């Protein structure tokens, strides 16, 4: 997995282009769990230095799609993925591609903060150590990542204490520090604020906006206000029941700039969902 040295002229300060200049794309992505067709034909493009929100009712496949992007679904034995997931035009499912490498470039933050049972310092140093990443000074690298996750000032005097000694919001920022420690390009976040209070949520949202300067972020959220506040583009999914089996297969309804999705959606299903009439 090599990251091409193409830099895209768009920075968040400039106007959002009509179409994303993609770091990642899915093409005809279909996901099955055993015989169950969980996600049908998803085509999405995730723009560089943009925040893309995936929204939709429970069970429509948001987490499934997110997990495909860095091959986390490989860890689910029944999961089967068809179609393509491209990272800088390379298919992350190509046989020659190492999933560990994929996850180094495409990091993940989960719904429930999940620090390792290690010190704050070792949580952050873990990824660079296991991947053999070269850093001049681990102390400096850990500090940089904790600063990047807006946590340094709160933990600088207790780096040897357990990650579990932190509050929920701090633990989530520690997980973000851990995710950026391997210097990824893309960060996936699956409902990262759903267990947090409004103050901790605001801190993570501010952090996402800062991280966007350096990373491409894809976030699943059930919180419409959050999607509207932080994301540049929004993808709305829904689930359609199969007429014979009744199984609900997730599909992408609409993908556009967040302002368009929330102010002027083109599909009635999107309109119904964002106005709270459904889901
Ligand atoms: N490991 C699994 N094994 C079997 N089925 C699964 C598995 N994970 C998810 N599914 C099914 O796939 C469908 C999509 O699930 P997914 O978790 O992606 O939905 P979601 O949109 O993230 O929902 P939520 O908003 O509740 O988190 C659901 O019907 C779910 O039951
Ligand atoms: Mg989910």
Automatic annotation (TrEMBL):
Entry annotated with the keyword ATP-binding: yes
Residues annotated as transmembrane: none
Residue ranges, annotated region (Disordered): 1-20
Gene Ontology process terms (BP): phosphate ion transmembrane transport
GO cellular component, one term: membrane
UniProt keyword annotation of Transport present: yes
GO molecular function: ATP binding; ATP hydrolysis activity; phosphate transmembrane transporter activity
UniProt entry keywords in alphabetical sequence: ATP-binding, Nucleotide-binding, Translocase, Transport
Gene3D superfamilies tied to this protein: P-loop containing nucleotide triphosphate hydrolases (3.40.50.300)
Residue spans of biased composition, Polar residues class: 1-14
One Pfam family, short name: ABC_tran
Ranges where the ABC transporter domain occurs: 24-264
Protein name: Phosphate ABC transporter ATP-binding protein, PhoT family
Protein species of origin: Ornithinimicrobium cerasi
């Amino acid at each position: 997995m090599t990251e091409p040295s193409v830099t895209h002229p768009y920075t968040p300060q400039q106007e959002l282009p009509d179409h994303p200049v993609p770091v990642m794309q899915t093409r005809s992505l279909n996901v099955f769990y055993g015989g169950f067709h969980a996600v049908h034909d998803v085509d999405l493009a995730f723009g560089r230095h943009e925040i893309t929100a995936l929204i939709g009712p429970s069970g429509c496949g948001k987490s499934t799609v997110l997990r495909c992007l860095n091959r986390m679904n490989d860890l689910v034995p029944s999961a089967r993925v068809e179609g393509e997931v491209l990272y800088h035009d390379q298919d992350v499912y190509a046989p020659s591609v190492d999933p560990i490498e994929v996850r180094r470039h495409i990091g993940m933050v989960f719904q429930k903060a999940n620090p390792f049972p290690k010190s704050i310092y070792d949580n952050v140093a873990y990824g660079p150590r296991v991947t053999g990443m070269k850093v001049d000074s681990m102390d400096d690298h850990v500090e940089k990542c904790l600063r990047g996750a807006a946590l340094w000032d709160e933990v600088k005097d207790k780096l040897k204490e357990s990650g579990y000694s932190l509050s929920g919001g701090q633990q989530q920022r520690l997980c973000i520090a851990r995710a950026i420690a391997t210097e990824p390009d893309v960060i996936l976040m699956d409902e990262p604020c759903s267990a947090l209070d409004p103050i901790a949520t605001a801190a993570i949202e501010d952090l996402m906006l800062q991280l966007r300067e350096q990373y491409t972020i894809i976030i699943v959220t059930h919180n419409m206000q959050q999607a509207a506040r932080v994301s540049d583009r929004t993808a709305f999914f829904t689930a359609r029941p199969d007429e014979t089996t009744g199984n609900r297969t997730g599909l992408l309804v609409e993908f556009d700039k967040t302002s368009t999705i929330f102010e002027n959606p083109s599909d009635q299903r999107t309109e119904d969902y964002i106005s709270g009439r459904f889901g």
